[in-house]
């Protein structure tokens, strides 16, 4: 009689462990919105032109950095795996601070603290680095591309002054999809 109870307990234990594993895996999968943002980050490599001086060599990697909390899980790495842009392999780097972000070509800034976010933008200002975030004040603070959701679609707000200051050329195809941030109108 104890034998069936022993098997039932073992069965329930295994079931609970499997469910816990599934929940852990589910927690690592980024939201659909963050998956779309990760794809946008990769697609920016196709529509932004960096000066030659932004690369150590013709075969140096084009580095997409994430500074702050990583909302993408490993989806961004999966998105760029095996990809090349103009002979540059695309890689992902998770940055601990703005100093590490200086080695990137695109940096997604995901920092909640507005003062720290402003400090990072200032540290990257004028460098050949495309700065991207989904923070509401991003363009106003000098960031280049803000991703935001409107009517269930990811939209772009572009700060052209910031991109020009960093000597990055944004494709007209990219700009057609964007709202252009106007510092004068926003004040």
What report would you give on this structure?
This protein is an alpha/beta fold and 187 residues long. The protein folds into two domains: 1-30; 32-186, 3-Layer(aba) Sandwich (Rossmann fold), CATH 3.40.50.2300. It is 44% helix and 24% strand. It is built from nine helices and ten strands. The chain has helices at 2-28, 32-47, 75-80, 98-101, 114-124, 138-141, 160-165, 172-176, 183-186, and strands at residues 48-49, 62-68, 84-85, 88-95, 106-110, 130-133, 145-150, 153-158, 169-170, 178-180. The protein has an eight-stranded mixed sheet with strand order 3-4-2-5-6-7-8-10, with helices on both faces. A two-stranded antiparallel ribbon has the order 1-9. A hairpin with a 2-residue loop joins β3 and β4 (88-95). The chain is globular, with a radius of gyration of 21 Å.
Give the averaged pLDDT, no decimals: 87
The coarse overall form would be globular
Counting structural domains, the number is: 2
The number of helical segments is 9
Largest beta-sheet details: 8 strands, mixed
The CATH topology of the largest domain is given as Rossmann fold
CATH class of the largest domain: Alpha Beta
Written as H for each helix and E for each strand, in order along the chain, the element string is HHEEHEEHEHEHEEHEHEH
Question: What are the low-pLDDT stretches, counting only 5+ consecutive residues below 50?
Answer: 6-27
CATH superfamily of the largest domain: Response regulator
Portion of residues in helices? Answer: 40-55%
Percentage beta strand? 15-25%
CATH architecture of the largest domain: 3-Layer(aba) Sandwich
Helix/strand/pairing class, anyone? alpha/beta
For the termini, the CA-CA separation is 79 Å
Rg: 21 Å
> How is the largest sheet built, in terms of strand order?
3-4-2-5-6-7-8-10
Count of DSSP E strands? 10
């Amino acid at each position: 009689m104890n034998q069936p109870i022993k098997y039932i307990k073992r069965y329930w234990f295994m079931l609970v462990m499997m469910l816990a594993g599934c929940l852990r895996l589910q927690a690592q999968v980024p939201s659909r919105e963050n998956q779309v943002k990760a794809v946008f980050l990769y697609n920016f490599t196709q529509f932004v032109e960096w000066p030659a001086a932004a690369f150590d060599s013709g075969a140096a990697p084009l580095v997409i950095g994430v500074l702050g909390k990583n909302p993408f899980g490993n989806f961004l790495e999966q998105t760029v795996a095996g990809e090349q842009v103009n002979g540059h392999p695309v890689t992902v780097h998770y940055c601990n601070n703005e100093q590490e972000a200086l080695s990137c070509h695109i940096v997604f800034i995901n920092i909640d603290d507005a003062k720290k976010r402003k400090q990072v933008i200032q540290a990257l200002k004028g460098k050949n680095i495309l700065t991207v975030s989904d923070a509401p004040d991003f363009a106003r603070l000098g960031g280049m591309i803000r991703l935001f959701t409107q009517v269930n679609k990811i939209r772009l707000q572009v700060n052209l002054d910031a991109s020009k200051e960093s000597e990055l050329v944004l494709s007209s195809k990219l700009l057609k999809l964007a709202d252009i941030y106007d510092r004068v109108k926003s004040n």
